[in-house]
Amino acid sequence: MLKSKVSSHWQTLNERSLMTLALDVVESLYGCKVRDKAEFRLLELELTLVQQLGAEPDANELLEGLYRQQGFSGDWERFFSIDNALLDRVLERRKGLPVTLGILLLHLCDRHRIRAEGICFPGHFLVRLWRQGEAQIIDPFTGRRLEPGEMEKLLRGTLGNLAKVTPEHLQAADKADILERLINVTKAAFLFDKQFSQALACSQLLLLLKPECPYEIRDRGFLFEQLDCDQLAAKDFEFFIQHCPDDPIADVLQAQIAALDLGPHTLH
């Protein structure tokens, strides 16, 4: 069940920091004790970086401190692991995904008054930060600056060989966009690991951000079906069919509903 605390936080989303919102996700899934440990590790990291870099590092020094000195990096070997999608585990293991490492980098930039913004680039979260007044695109998975050719290669890996980077791909994302990206990635990691109950919890969180979104309700229906909650699944599928009758999947879902066990169950 989602905690009312999380829901109330998201009602005032723009008043809260991105890191706070990301830790809300952790708390909603695993409770306040796990969140408290994550906040302690984050504070330890912040204090260590101040000791190493001083109170006002520039962007180059912060990247060097976080990625080289503190050893944060993208996890190439276990990319789809849930360990890489949850901030508490990222802080513990010092490995993560582009979006989780990006949220951490944005948080530290904010702490040190370095101008930075997140970019929900297709398939790979990026960070734009300013070094000596010059805007640069950073890959938070590696901590390196990306050249235009590298960005185009990333884009083509997601959208196909004919894709070209446009200004729209590099627009700054707001907190809601980044939070949605984080939860979607987290849900995908749970699905990859066949943890359907936790994936369902992520779906419920997304519906706090996008109430009555038919596509998210459809996806929740698939999760209900995996959890043998056939009546709830049918209700979600019917909602999608009603709101998106021309979608090609609507006919598929109609057949899916017919195949579900919707009869009354006898209790023994």
From TrEMBL:
<comment type="similarity">
    <text>Belongs to the UPF0162 family.</text>
</comment>
<protein>
    <submittedName>
        <fullName>Tetratricopeptide repeat protein</fullName>
    </submittedName>
</protein>
<dbReference type="InterPro" id="IPR011990">
    <property type="entry name" value="TPR-like_helical_dom_sf"/>
</dbReference>
<dbReference type="Pfam" id="PF13369">
    <property type="entry name" value="Transglut_core2"/>
</dbReference>
<dbReference type="Pfam" id="PF13371">
    <property type="entry name" value="TPR_9"/>
</dbReference>
<dbReference type="InterPro" id="IPR032698">
    <property type="entry name" value="SirB1_N"/>
</dbReference>
<feature type="domain" description="Protein SirB1 N-terminal">
    <location>
        <begin position="44"/>
        <end position="184"/>
    </location>
</feature>
